[in-house]
Amino acid sequence: MATTLAPPKPRTPLSSDGAGRGGNGFQAGFGGGGDPGAHGWEAPAQAYRTGLWMGLAAIVMLFAAFTSALVVRKGMSTDWVSTALPSVIYLNTFVLLSSSLTLEISRRSLPSGRVKRFSRWLNVTVFLGLAFVAGQLIAWRQLALRGIYLATNPSSSFFYLLTAAHGVHLVGGIIALFYLVFRVRSITVARRPVSVDLTAIYWHFMDALWIYILLLLMVRL
Predict the structure, then answer these.
(1) Alpha carbon distance 154, 80 (integer Å)
(2) Other beta carbons less than 10 A from residue 141's beta carbon
(3) Does 39 have pLDDT greater than 60?
(4) Is-contact 180 30, C-beta < 8 A?
(5) Intra-chain end-to-end CA distance of the chain, in Å
(6) Which residues contact 150 (CB under 8 A, 6 or more apart)?
(7) Rounded to whole angstroms, how far apart are CA atoms 159 and 219?
(8) In whole angstroms, what is the distance from residue 211 CA to residue 190 CA?
(9) pLDDT score, position 35
(10) Is 70 exceeded by the pLDDT of residue 209?
(11) What does the angle CA 114 – CA 116 – CA 122 come to, to the nearest 5 degrees?
């Protein structure tokens, strides 16, 4: 007697909501949290926040190691010659602190939908960030004109090391600011996506880190 095989059941198509993406309901791209136009692989906003805080923790550990090395080297040194800080460094500090203020003004403009205000102050922040980097190069130039270079003495070595390490990390923040500048249209529709908040956190952290470095140089260098 022949056996009749039942036709296979058709598979249920995946829906276009969270189930169609592995059932996680994640938001797309770095602009997650209401940033339309983002694309590529997907992750929740909290994942980006966690990643940022882990990155900041790593930076703290790095500069803690630099601080420890400076204290130990100075304590054991017989050739330590204190390096007078370039005068422009205090102007640079004012510029960087001002950039945090302008970024916060820009960020707080989004919930109320003031697009032009957001864009204008964001561009001012980018300008101040670039001005700070240029000012740091001028500070190095001032030291060079005094005959103080990286290998002149341990004190000058730590000045160049600390300011260069901070500058490299700050450039990362400037790149993030440029990202926001080029995404103004989609960001303003979202009324403050996670990308704006994370960039602000990172930028304010760079300001706080610079104040710490400046105090360290003033006290220990």
Answers:
(1) 6
(2) 12
(3) no
(4) no
(5) 97
(6) 156, 157, 160
(7) 12
(8) 33
(9) 47
(10) yes
(11) 100
> Around Cβ 62, how many Cβ atoms within 10 Å?
12
The whole model's pTM is what? 0.78
* Nearest one of 166, 215, 171, 181 to 60, comparing CA atoms: 166
Please state the separation of Cα 112 from the chain's center in Å: 25
Query: What is the reported pLDDT for 1?
Result: 45
Dihedral (C-alpha) 50, 194, 200, 47: value to the nearest 10 degrees? 10
Q: What is the DSSP string of 178-198?
A: HHHHHTHHHHHHHTS-HHHHH
**Calpha distance 2→167 (Å, rounded):** 80
Write out the two tokens for 169: 């990390």
Q: Do the beta carbons of residue 33 and residue 194 sit within 8 Å?
A: yes
Long-range CB pairs of 128-134 (<8 Å, 24+ gap) are 128/95, 128/96, 128/98, 128/99, 128/102, 129/96, 129/99, 129/170, 129/173, 129/174, 129/177, 129/203, 130/174, 131/95, 132/92, 132/95, 132/96, 132/99, 132/170, 133/167, 133/170, 133/171, 133/174
Q: Which tokens sit at 43?
A: 């992750």
Domains contained in the chain, CATH given: 45-77+85-220 (1.20.120.80)
Task: Return d(Cα 160, Cα 212) in angstroms, integer.
Answer: 15
Cα 194 to Cα 33: distance, rounded to the nearest angstrom: 6
∠ CA 127-183-206, rounded to 5°: 45
Closest among 52, 31, 56, 50 to 42, alpha carbons compared: 31
